[in-house]
Design a protein that fits this description.
This protein is an all-alpha fold. The chain is 69% helix and 0% strand. It has one domain. The termini are far apart.
């Protein structure tokens, strides 16, 4: 893990303690990513191969940045980005230009609303990128880190972001151990 990433992530975590805010970020980040790539997917570059679009070319630098910050998290995000880029291609192939722009606007509104609700209602704190503009690019890394920690991977990240939210165990009914 890049030492600079470790420091940035520790700062980012301070603004994202409430699990409901973290859940809002999952939806908000995916919605905002899709809103950004959908219109860009309408601009193909056939000379570069099948389904290469402006969206793919615009996403590559940030994917490289995430890979440089932390290879495992970066690879996980590359996999999710590939899935979302493929989804965008399918949507663009089966939808009118007007509908794509309308969907992009709706996704942007939902994504921004999700982020605002997460910070104002649940966290009751301003977004981290107000104080640290570079944190704009840390959201996906944070969400992926939380996921990998929740799945039992990346104990080194658990030390920074805290353990995954514990699930309250269901009470065992009397006599269940006798069966």
């Amino acid at each position: 893990m890049n030492p600079s990433f470790r420091r940035q992530l520790a700062d980012y975590v301070e603004y994202h303690r409430d699990p409901r805010n973290c859940a809002a970020h999952v939806f908000g980040i995916v919605f905002l990513f899709m809103a950004a790539i959908l219109p860009l997917t309408m601009v193909p570059f056939p000379s570069l191969g099948a389904h290469v679009s402006l969206a793919t070319l615009m996403v590559l630098p940030v994917l490289v940045y995430w890979l440089l910050l932390d290879l495992a998290l970066g690879l996980a995000i590359v996999a999710v980005a590939a899935l979302l880029l493929s989804t965008a291609v399918m949507i663009v192939d089966h939808t009118s230009g007007y509908a794509i722009w309308a969907l992009a606007v709706v996704l942007t509104v939902l994504g921004v609303t999700s982020q605002i609700v997460g910070h104002r209602v649940f966290e009751q704190r301003k977004p981290s990128m107000v104080d640290h503009p570079a944190h704009f690019l840390l959201g996906p890394m944070f969400v992926m880190a939380k996921l990998l920690v929740a799945l039992g991977f990346r104990h080194d990240l658990a030390a920074i972001i805290g353990p995954a939210d514990a699930v309250t165990p269901r009470p065992v009914s009397p006599g269940a151990s006798d069966r």
